[in-house]
Amino acid sequence: MYWLKKYWYFAVIILVVAIWIYVNPSDTNQSENFIMTENTETTVEEIDRIEKGNEEQVVMVDVKGEIAKPGVYQMEAVDRVQDVIKIAGGLTKKGDPSAINMAERVYDEMVIIIPKKGEEGSIGAQSAVQSDGKIKINTATKEEIMQIPGIGEVKANAMIDFRETNGRFEKIEDLTKVNGIGEKTLDNIRDFVQIP
């Protein structure tokens, strides 16, 4: 009993802490919830990072013509033509910016030819027919698309209309979104089509 009289304040502190914990148990739960929320946010951030990594695909773009520094530039798939032109030092005084779609997204093996004022510019002007006979469907003309076995004028026009309305084909399976092209047609043309 002697020690209780000497150290009574320890007993009071322990009693106050015990009462505090008993009366306010929600504080402990809140800290646990906070930890769980923090972990959830980290998971969401990781998912965003993974998705962003997929978007940041590296592509090579060739810029020619009336440009300050013509050449091949490494870009990200989310970049636009204006970004490539900016990195390439901009247009020369003779370059015509109105002849090029500055808002178009870049893609791998893209060729941008900046024309002189008064001339027509082109993006992807090189032949869409590869040495291995495959057709680059995102840059091919109607005549080039019609070289694919089983594709006539109607389907070629449908592919071009779809491409102009919805943008580039990202994967070969996107061709099934075109009117008149189903799984069977896709299987037949798969070996003749290239989607960069």
Largest sheet, spatial ordering of strands = 2-1-3-4
Q: What is the helix tally?
A: 7
DSSP strand (E) fraction? 5-15%
Parts with pLDDT < 50 across at least 5 consecutive residues = 33-40
- What about the largest sheet? 4 strands, mixed
Secondary structure layout:
Blueprint: H1 2-6, H2 8-23, H3 26-55, E1 58-65, E2 71-76, H4 81-87, E3 110-114, E4 122-123, E5 135-136, H5 142-145, H6 153-166, H7 183-189, E6 193-194
Parallel strand pairs: 1-3, 5-6
Antiparallel strand pairs: 1-2, 3-4
Task: Identify the notable features of this structure and list them briefly.
196 residues; alpha/beta; DNA polymerase, domain 1; 3 domains; 4-stranded mixed sheet; two-stranded parallel sheet; Endo/Exo/Phosphatase_dom_1
Describe this structure in words.
The protein has 196 residues and is α/β, with parallel strands linked by helices. The protein folds into three domains: 2-55; 58-123; 135-194, DNA polymerase, domain 1 (Orthogonal Bundle). The protein contains seven helices and six strands, in the order H-H-H-E-E-H-E-E-E-H-H-H-E. It has helices at 2-6, 8-23, 26-55, 81-87, 142-145, 153-166, 183-189; strands spanning 58-65, 71-76, 110-114, 122-123, 135-136, 193-194. The strands form two sheets. It has a four-stranded mixed beta sheet, covered by helices on one side. Strands 5-6 form a two-stranded parallel ribbon. A hairpin with a 7-residue loop joins strand 3 (110-114) and strand 4 (122-123). The longest helix has 30 residues, at 26-55. It is elongated. The termini are far apart.
